[in-house]
Amino acid sequence: MSVIRGVLSWFRDAFGPGPRTADGRRSGGSMDIKRDRMVFLGYGKYWRSDAIIGLMPIEEERGPKRRTNVFVQGRAEPIIASRTEQSILDEMGATGDGFQVQGLREAVTDLLAAFHEISPALRRTLQNEHHLDVEQWEQRLGELLRAPQRSEPGEQNDLFE
């Protein structure tokens, strides 16, 4: 049961109130950009997350279609996005949500390892008395952890020219 307590404690830490800046954003942590992820910039514009090299909020003439300047590799001029820099960062996997997903993956891996160590007798008892099918949960958690097949990254510099 100590593994379950540890997982529950991790969930409380991961999803509880953490350190935040004055405007409500999470603070701390380092940038961990997810590769080969398409980021929606608004109004039909998408760009690969690992090609975005900078975000700058638009201060003057800011409006519904003008929220953030997005600087990308291979372009001298920034792309004007209709989304805020924080929402773009969230989608890139660079903020707390991206770290929480990685933490969840690690917690599920630990839980799956604990399930593997449950004896056959205890498995039968859990199934018969508590209707907990350990084998079914092992299968479901294993399917969640299987990584999707990656495709080769393509060039995207011609998309917005």
Structure description:
By secondary structure, the protein is of the alpha+beta class. Among the domains are: 38-92; 96-145. Helices cover 41% and strands 14% of the residues. The chain is built from five helices and five strands, in the order αβββββαααα. It has helices at 2-15, 85-92, 96-116, 120-130, 134-145, and strands at residues 38-42, 45-48, 52-57, 68-72, 79-81. The strands form two sheets. A three-stranded antiparallel sheet has the order 3-4-5, with no helix packed on it. α1 runs antiparallel to α3 and α3 (96-116) packs antiparallel against α5. The protein is elongated and about 70 Å long.
List SSEs in N-to-C order: HEEEEEHHHH
What order do the strands of the largest sheet run in, or round the barrel if closed?
A: 3-4-5
Mean pLDDT: 76
Number of helices, where a helix is a run of at least 4 consecutive DSSP H or I residues: 5
Distance between the termini: 58 Å
Q: Name the overall outline.
A: elongated
Q: How does the helix and strand content classify structurally?
A: alpha+beta
Number of strand segments: 5
Radius of gyration: 21 Å
Q: Uncertain regions: pLDDT < 50 for 5+ in a row? A: none
Main sheet?
A: 3 strands, antiparallel
Q: Short description, anyone?
A:
This protein is of the alpha+beta class and 161 residues long. It has 5 helices and 5 strands; from the N terminus they run αβββββαααα.
What topology emerges from the helices and strands here?
Elements: H1 2-15, E1 38-42, E2 45-48, E3 52-57, E4 68-72, E5 79-81, H2 85-92, H3 96-116, H4 120-130, H5 134-145
Antiparallel strand pairs: 1-2, 3-4, 4-5
Helix pairs in contact: 1-3, 3-5
